[in-house]
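[job 0417] fold request received: Shikimate dehydrogenase
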Amino acid sequence: MEKTEKKENRYGLLGKDISYSFSQGYFAKKFVELKLNDHSYENFDIPEISEFKALVTQRHLKGLNVTIPYKEQVITYLDDLDADAKKIGAVNTIKFTKKGLKGYNTDAYGFQKSIEPFLKPHHKKALILGTGGASKAICFVLERLGIEYTYVSRTKKEHQFTYKELSKEVMLAHSIIVNCTPQGTFPNINDKPDLPYQHLNEKHLLFDLIYNPDKTAFLIEGESKGTKICNGLKMLQLQAEKSWEIWNST
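[job 0417] inference complete; emitting structure tokens
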């Protein structure tokens, strides 16, 4: 866990192996710009979610963001859930209140605001790569936007595709592809989901939740076929700002 000067108003990111995180730098810069000298943002890197209980007893904690792999696991330890977080089944923002810990999901907000400018009338069906906590927020938004979706995973499950089942017909029928897996994240920048990229065309939209590198191998493949592409940076910035709004609401 990184050493950070303890301030009167402490915020942080809960996760595992998160030294790469965007959030700490983002909020540190924000606090400087807002002249909030009594605010700090720390990385709470814990090996097991069971350590969460002790972590939240630390003094002056006001709010946490949550990342892989604890967005679902942390729910057990919370006292209350926002309505959207309850529907989604994943939490990425925790507010410390007088009544206890309340969980929210700002990933959904960030994703919706990020993808909406790219959507066209022909974007009616989506493939979601990966089935973790982040993908739940993506499904929630797609349902709200009236876009059908199907999960893609490595193992065969009912109502899902495996990567081997992604035929030309399937690829052409699903013009949105959202990567919710960590494949392609720095430093493994040559990794990418095992898709038949040759079937992509200019009608496809590829959205990658990864933001480092800013153009993953997945997005590069799509761009070479004329697709529209979007990485996860805008989504991350938007969800961070929504978290800040929640922490400061009464």
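[job 0417] notes: The CA atoms of residues 46 and 239 lie 22 Å apart. The helical segments are 23-33, 52-55, 83-88, 107-115, 133-144, 168-173, 217-224, 233-247.
[job 0417] exit 0
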